[in-house]
Specification:
Radius of gyration of chain B: 16 Å
Number of helices of chain A: 3
CATH architecture of chain A: Roll
Largest sheet of chain A: 5 strands, antiparallel
Number of strands of chain A: 5
CATH class of chain B: Alpha Beta
Strand order of the largest sheet of chain B: 1-3-4-5-2
Order of helices and strands of chain A: EHHHEEEE
CATH architecture of chain B: Roll
Number of domains of chain B: 1
CATH class of chain A: Alpha Beta
Structural class of chain A: alpha+beta
Strand order of the largest sheet of chain A: 1-3-4-5-2
Distance between the termini of chain A: 5 Å
Strand content of chain B: 35-45%
Largest interface: A-B, 34 and 32 residues
Radius of gyration of chain A: 17 Å
Number of helices of chain B: 3
Shape of chain A: elongated
Oligomer: heterodimer
């Protein structure tokens, strides 16, 4: 089943605030095996000009993927999640995410298209502080294999 | 130690790195990221959906590849853009060695504002696993 093209441009309400903690950043850095002290030691972060430890660049996916589930799980969209793989991912940073940030994600549907029998859904997640300061934008393309034109 | 814009040119190669990818890494990544998709930890389910074995999270691969850039530049906050296309999965066998991810990077373009574009390659078991992997980084 093809995806409902009327979803393009749809914008969802901002997610509830996510508070970024030092230990969550450390856990994520440990999980990717990255020993960089700027992810763990506030002094190391301050020496680079940051007020607190910063998160690895791809940490933004923790927020954007959770927020994107609003779209992916919307039954009206018609996405067969059992056939979905992650096709592309891109982040555009205004500044790094850091401990103490209170962040919300505003998700919108960027594009829906078909290619080689697959449906491609691109969502955009604008991650900003609760005060409205932009931090990072995440573009995620999901591919539903073999679902187009059915 | 910071890399200076004036010291790099198009074609400058970043130090390549090889990252081990074992089952324990995927379990840790699942917990830290909140992505509990079964194909990243359950061999039975992975094979039932046609995969050769458990595969790494694409985002884990993306995170490892990024380290070639962040280790080079020193300050991970200097990355302004980072994007990849996932072409093939990194297959992770249930043994003590797991898989290996080999990442290279080279400066593809010098941009205004002392920024450079770095193109990355990522291979596992002889196959390219990321395409169009590019980071835009601010240098000193």
């Amino acid at each position: 089943m093809a995806l409902d093209p009327s979803f393009v441009g749809r914008k969802y309400a901002p997610t509830p605030a996510y508070e970024v903690g030092r230990e969550k950043i450390r856990e994520f850095a440990d999980a990717i095996g990255d020993p960089n002290p700027v992810y763990r030691d506030p002094e190391a972060a301050r020496s680079l000009g940051y007020p607190d430890v910063i998160a690895p660049p791809t940490f933004a996916i923790v927020l954007s993927m959770r927020a994107g589930s609003q779209v992916v799980a919307d039954p009206d969209l018609g996405l067969d999640y059992s056939r979905v793989v992650h096709g592309e991912q891109r982040f555009v940073y205004t500044r790094p995410i850091r401990a103490g940030d209170r962040l919300t994600v505003t998700v919108s549907v960027e594009s829906i298209r078909s290619a080689a029998g697959n449906d491609l859904l691109t969502t955009r997640g604008d991650i900003a502080t609760v005060d409205g300061e932009p931090v990072v934008t995440a573009y995620s393309t999901l591919v539903a294999r073999g679902t187009a034109g059915g | 130690m910071a890399v200076r814009y004036d010291d790099v040119e198009v074609g400058t190669e970043l130090p390549p790195q090889a990252f081990p990818v074992r089952r324990v890494n995927l379990v840790m990544y699942a917990g830290a990221s909140g992505d509990f998709n079964v194909i990243h930890w359950n061999e039975r389910v992975a094979k039932a959906v046609g995969l050769p074995n458990v595969i790494a999270h694409g985002m884990f691969t993306m995170a490892e590849a990024c380290r070639v850039v962040t280790d080079w530049v020193g300050d991970p906050g200097a990355i302004e853009e980072y994007g990849v296309r996932f072409t093939r999965p990194v297959v992770v066998p249930d043994d003590d060695r797991g898989a290996s991810l080999e990442v290279t990077g080279r400066v593809a373009d010098k941009l205004d504002g002392k920024r450079v574009a770095v193109d990355l390659t990522a291979r596992s078991a002889g196959e390219t696993v990321l395409a169009r992997a590019r980071a835009v980084v601010r240098l000193g």
